[in-house]
Each structure stands twice: as C-alpha cells, then as structure tokens.
Amino acid sequence: MKRTLLMMGLCGVALGPVFAHEGHDHGDEKPSFVVPGNQAQRLPDGTVFVPKSAQRGMAVLTRRVAVESLPKSLELPGRVIMDPHLGGRVQAMIPGRIEPAGVHGLPAAGSKVKKGDVLAWVVPASGAIERANQAALLAELKASLGLAEKRLNRLRELADTVPKKDIDAAESEVASLKGRLGAVGGGLSGREALVAPVGGVLAASNAMVGQVVEPKELIFEVIDPDSLHIEATAFDPIPLDQIASATVAVGDQAVPLSYVGAPRRLREQALPLIFENHAAGAGLTLPLGQPVKVQVRLKSTVQGLPVPASALTRNTANQVVVWVKTAPERFTARVVRSEPLDGVRVLVTGGLQAGERVVVQGASLLAQIR
C-alpha cells in the first residue's frame, strides 16, 4: 500500500508544471528559422534557398553582368519572303495536263535545280470541236502546200521564159504554207516546257502526273538557298535614316540582316521594311511565310546591362524579374526594366546593378519553387 502511494506521488511530481529557477528565465524569444539543407524552398522573406545539389540538378548557371553601350533596338513583327532577284515561280501559260520531263519523274520539294532545267511538260488540253477544226485546217494546208510545190517546180522548169518575180512569189507561198502547217501541227501535238527560271532549291512543288492545270496556276517555286529576305512591319513612325541593321533569332543564334529599304506606301496601315542576308545556307534557315520577330538596330546608342532573354521570368504579380545570386545557395528576384536587343539578348535598363550575378539558365525553374 505504501509502495502504491509512493509511485502515485512520483508521477504527480513528474507530470506537474516545471518552473525555472530565479535568474534562469529565457523570456518569450522565438526560435530562429533553420533552413533544411536537402531541399529547395522559398523562404519567408521571398528569397529562394537552393542547395548545391539541387542547383546542379536544375542546371542553374549564373553570369556577372556589366554595363555596356549598345545600339538602341526596336522589335517589329515580320515574315520571311522570297528574294525577287534570286528566286522565281514557274506557272502554266496554257491549260493542259502535267507530264514528267524525265525518267525520274517530277521533282519533289527540296530538290536542287539549275537554271534552264525542264521541270515538267504541260500537254495542251482542247475540246473535241476545236481539235476537229484544227485537224481540218491542217488537212487543207497540206493540200495547198502540195499544189504550191508543184507550181513552183513547173515555174523552175520554165525559168528561161517565166519572169523571176513569179518564181520568187511561188517560193514565198511554199515557205508560208510550211510555216502555217508547222504552227497548226504544233498546236495539236505540241507541249509547253516548264523551265526553272533560276538555280536553287524547290520551295514548292504543286505538280502531280496527270494533273490538269489552268493558266497562271503556280506549279513550282524556286528559292536561292544562300539568300534570306525578311519583311518587317512598322505600325509606329520610325526614323528611316537611323536604321543601321537588324537581327532575327533562329534558335539560340541571332542571324544578322542588312537594311535594304522601305517603300513609301503603307500596307494595311503599316510601313514594310525590307532586310536581307546573303550567306551560305541563309535561305534555308527559315521557311517562306514564317512569322518572325525582327530586332531593328538604330544608330543611336543606349547604356544598360545585356543579359540572355532566358534570364527574364515573371513573378506572381506578372512583373518581369531576373534572379540574382546573393549567396552560394540563395537567390533573390529583382523587378527590372528591359528593352529588346538582338532577339537572343535583352538590355536591362533598370532594377539591376553592375557586377551582380544573374541566373542565365534555369531561371524559370527557380520561379516555380514554392
């Protein structure tokens, strides 16, 4: 009985409240926040904690930025067009049926052709009444030619007694009938050759064996693989005398373009600007008609911090931000102002300081960390 009461007393002492001794009170201090070192997470102050192992897994790369003076750029919408000097179209002049020009059949799109190559034949199509009339005319011309040749032979036999002018007239009549006979005969059995106007690559091939085509119908389209033309559209006034050059982004590269000129006539309330590039394979980098974004460079300059376009992301407030590495495992989002540069890079003009390390790869992954 005494042992039971003793155990209950000890339990009551253990379960009772415990008070600190005088002079050992720690107050109401909150425990400091400890960042776990094995997973990436967003901290209460808005920064992002990413351990080194996670940075390697997300392939995060940073680069120190510096102030540079670069040409001012404008971003304009554009599209790829054909070079009118080095490209061409092959159209049918008469209605007819398509026939292959060689044993290999009709050329496919993407095939290389040379100037003057016969790509296909167009056999003229005509109605039954028209062909009957041409056949009757052909028979009449053959009969007239036979009579004219016999008359010419008789006059030549009597050359000593017949005036020379009669013989010349008979020879002229025979030549005329032969020419008319050849023209009518060619109209019945002749065919039109579709010839490549320039050398290059077939950008379009709309021909099939046995296909019936109409006049002015586009059959083939040839482009120069080493010529690229871009037509940019400017909806706002642009100082044309300040245009220096332009670039267009092709993948991760900025293809340079030279300024050709601008017609002084609006098209759909916009002014078209023509740019070109002549280099090996330039015409094959972008297909005809593809919409692109053209970065037009002006002669005036502006100072800023150039960074890759992949470094820009948006926060929850839809603001443009870049991620700055402030510590070996900590990143901070900075709201910035930027301008287009060359399609691959942008120019940061505010919100970022020179010398800071900016995330140039993996910024979109950092923005998804919660």
What are its keywords?
alpha+beta; elongated; five-stranded antiparallel β-sheet; six-stranded antiparallel β-barrel; conserved putative lor/sdh protein from methanococcus maripaludis s2 fold; OB fold (Dihydrolipoamide Acetyltransferase, E2P)
Describe the structure.
- The protein has 370 residues and is α+β, with helices and mostly antiparallel strands.
- It folds into three domains: 41-72 and 302-367, conserved putative lor/sdh protein from methanococcus maripaludis s2 fold, CATH 2.40.420; 74-83 and 224-300, Elongation Factor Tu (Ef-tu), domain 3 (Beta Barrel), CATH 2.40.30; 89-223, Beta Barrel (OB fold (Dihydrolipoamide Acetyltransferase, E2P)).
- It has five helices and 23 strands.
- The strands form five sheets. A six-stranded antiparallel beta barrel has the order 4-13-16-15-14-17.
- Strand 19 (320-327) and strand 20 (330-335) form a beta hairpin.
- The longest helix is centred in the middle third of the chain and has 30 residues, at 128-157.
- It is elongated, with a radius of gyration of 41 Å.
- Residues 1-33 have low confidence and may be disordered.
